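Q: Hi! First time doing this. I have a protein sequence and I read that you can turn it into a structure. Is that right? Here it is:
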Amino acid sequence: MTRDLHFVPAHELVELYERKLLSPVEATRAALDRIAAVNPRINAFVLIDEVGALEQARAAEARWRRGEPRGQLDGVPVTLKDQAMVQGWPSRRGSLVIGSDQPATADGPEAARLRADGTVFLGKTTTPENGWKGLTDSPLTGITRNPWNIELHAGGSSGGAAAALAAGIGALAVGGDGGGFIRIPASFCGVVGLKPSFGRVPVYPPNPFAQLIHIGPMARNVVDAALLLDVIAQPDPRDWLSLPADRRASHAGLDHGIRGLRVAYSPTLGTARVDRDVRAALDTAASRFVEFGAIVEGVDPPLGGVRDVFAILWAVGVARGIHGATDEQKAQMDPGLVELAAYGETIGVMEFLAAQAERSRIATDMARFFELFDLLLTPTTPIPAFSIEQQLADPDRDRWWFDWAPFSYPFNISHQPAITIPAGLTADGRPIGMQLVGPRWREDLVLRAAVAFEKSRPRLFRPPLD
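A: Yes, that's right. Below is the predicted 3D structure, encoded as structure tokens:
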């Protein structure tokens, strides 16, 4: 194999295993070597398990040698976000107040499915403290840097997962998305990230964020993301809101195209200020969809009031997450986390219930909107990745992280599937993400449309790390 083995897609790794042209041990060794080579520059991991990964890889190699793979991704190297519950590993969640001596005694739903499928666990990727914001820096691990330019943020909160993928570490990653936290870092780092419909992938342990958290796949291409979704999208009794298994395989029908589909194109959602290069890339993408045979119409979805609703629900969740922390513990936490939690503590019961009622209205309006359209096309973020010296894209205008990320959190409110895929680069070489949103439970539509666009991409997106 070539020196770029670490960039081989997951579905091609499986084909090579099947043809006995490559071993899971070789692929895993390449991934671990890549971690050693580039992770000191990007800081994407909070835990690396070289011994465990090689042990899993050897077991996968033996299964392939016998012609008895355990699953469709047997032997493929993956990473998991630090919030994931993985047997034998702690979940530090970016916090100094959570010790490393608290290993999980069981796998959470996503880890259990991956383990049953035979994937190889490389380690846990970084996150901001308690996964509270759209950037990945924390008191525990410091700053996770963007492989395209290490002076830029990788996005968050699945920033370690996105940075690792972009840098060629592992073929697949599992992230979590509470308001764009798969899609924002995937956009900033030039990879693919899918937030499935709420409940498609079970969540456990429970979280305090009012049914905003979605677990989903991240990859360097859409086919791999679909394959990973098939593995992790199975119900789990520990999550009473998890959906029944979808009989449609996510990776089936990806090449069916989108001719005749009705696509709403909203480059601003009515109010967002969008970077000129981002807008140009999205206008080009909309034109491509017309070429694919879709019916594209410029229209903004009915999302009035969504920012204020999300602010209340998110702040209350942040407050619940650190409720009971002592002043001494808070002094060790991310100051922004503590500040947003303090705001959340001021929100009364009636204000919170009113926000929940508004959420229901918005979700209903979006369901009606998707009776008229099959897909919604938007930027993933209105801006490309920005400097690690900043916590806000525009400190003069932004109050919280979600003020510079208006395209992502609305669809956590409405529980709809949304995918981001690379749509180009800015003039100075920063990735631009394109978002496709579909009706609830229609991951198949967003994946089909994403594949159609991905095939038309004029260039391979790989950061200039080497």
